[in-house]
Design goal:
Elements (H helix, E strand, L loop, with lengths): L3 H14 L17 H6 L5 H10 L34 H4 L3 H9 L21 H11 L3
Helix pairs in contact: 3-6, 5-6
Length: about 140
């Protein structure tokens, strides 16, 4: 029997070999900003802003625990983590944006022993920042 972590890594490898999953956002090939570039963005769309909140170490830092399926992966960008499940096929994993938002807000509701911090419940992120992350995640 395959472990969840191995199965997730295997799935990500298959997707990468198949050319990845295109993200229908304003960010196109090579345009995902780095954390440093995110600090300088002024009028980015909500999806790019969500990406920036997710990758910023002092904010969401989602990639510290999760591998994300963005195509192409930003050059020179560190790989995502493998503590949490890969961020892939979010629309098929969550029945709505509201369900995904609830998971980010307080993941202990669905999984009491999770290691994911309750970003909203503990006010680690604002409601607006959580909504921005949801918009980005909904595209992958």
């Amino acid at each position: 029997m395959l472990s969840f972590r191995f199965a997730g890594t295997f799935l990500m490898g298959l997707l990468l070999l198949a050319g990845g999953v295109a993200s229908p956002t304003a960010a196109t090939a090579g345009e995902w900003p780095s954390e440093k570039q995110c600090k300088k963005l002024k009028d980015a769309d909500v999806v790019t802003t969500g990406w920036c909140v997710a990758i910023t170490r002092r904010k969401g830092n989602c990639l510290g625990c999760h591998m994300a399926m963005v195509n192409p992966w930003p050059e020179g960008f560190p790989p995502g983590g493998n503590v949490g499940p890969p961020l892939v096929a979010m629309k098929s994993r969550f029945e709505s944006k509201e369900a995904l938002r609830a998971q980010i807000y307080d993941p202990t509701v669905r999984s009491p022993n999770t290691s994911m911090p309750p970003f909203g419940k503990h006010r680690l992120l604002s409601d607006k920042q959580i909504d921005q992350i949801v918009e980005w995640l909904w595209t992958i």
